[in-house]
């Protein structure tokens, strides 16, 4: 009847603890579009994400904030997520993530502390835990940073969850900054994937990430050398290309 009469119908389904639609997949198969509203219990931000769209792309998201009047759109999520950054605080850096075709800048914070239990802990909030442990191992092996007796805590501010390799360089630099207790300038942004040999690999849509950083007033951008060679446009901010994590750490005085 809905198709015959061209009536838009919204069906609301329960979700499991993992965030998936409960029960058989009949509900997802019968509809044209599936939308997920994501968010943490203790944060006011909500992300509307399309996971199925029969007649269009699922590469876009919408970001909203819960208020008295309901969910209000956030037109510039990057500026909101960076509005409360502390100056000259070690362990903090801004990274650029792509949500579909939309760049979002978020603050990534790391904290290292000497373990008192003899077994170092690793805690990740907002990124994959296994990715954090892998990057810590790369720091120990390739940069000679003794983190074996250090508890490492990582957090993405705002309750955002991101699973993208382009955050790797930011994670490495934030952990190094906290361990050395050297602050990274607030006008610096880092983008890049880190491999097991310590190399910094290229990422996609680098131009959109840089333009978003430029729009928000950042002055320095550290990106993979392979991405820098392919840039065509001119930017107002200083773009530094690095081949490995040692070069990136030297640029920020962390080595």
Which characteristics define this entry?
255 residues; alpha/beta; Ribosomal Protein S5, domain 2; four-stranded antiparallel sheet; 8 helices; 29% strand; globular
Distance between the termini: 67 Å
Number of helices: 8
Instruction: Tell me which CATH architecture of the largest domain applies here.
Output: 2-Layer Sandwich
Q: Using the CA coordinates, give the radius of gyration.
A: 20 Å
Can you tell me the number of structural domains? 2
Question: Overall mean pLDDT score?
Answer: 91
Portion in helices: 25-40%
Instruction: Find the count of extended strands (DSSP E, 2+ residues).
Output: 13
Instruction: Report on the biggest sheet.
Output: 7 strands, mixed
Topology pattern, helix = H, strand = E: HHEEEEHEEEHEHEEEHEHEH
CATH fold name of the largest domain = Ribosomal Protein S5, domain 2
State the low-pLDDT regions, or none: none
CATH class of the largest domain: Alpha Beta
Give a brief outline of the structure.
The protein is α/β, with parallel strands linked by helices and 255 residues long. It contains 8 helices and 13 strands. The chain folds into 2 domains: 2-75, no CATH class; 79-251, Ribosomal Protein S5, domain 2, CATH 3.30.230.
How would the blueprint of this fold be written?
Layout: H1 2-5, H2 26-30, E1 33-38, E2 45-53, E3 61-67, E4 70-73, H3 77-81, E5 92-99, E6 102-114, E7 122-125, H4 129-143, E8 150-156, H5 168-180, E9 188-190, E10 193-194, E11 200-201, H6 206-215, E12 220-224, H7 225-229, E13 238-242, H8 245-251
Parallel strand pairs: 5-9, 7-8, 9-12, 12-13
Antiparallel strand pairs: 1-2, 2-3, 3-4, 5-6, 6-8, 10-11
Helix pairs in contact: 4-5
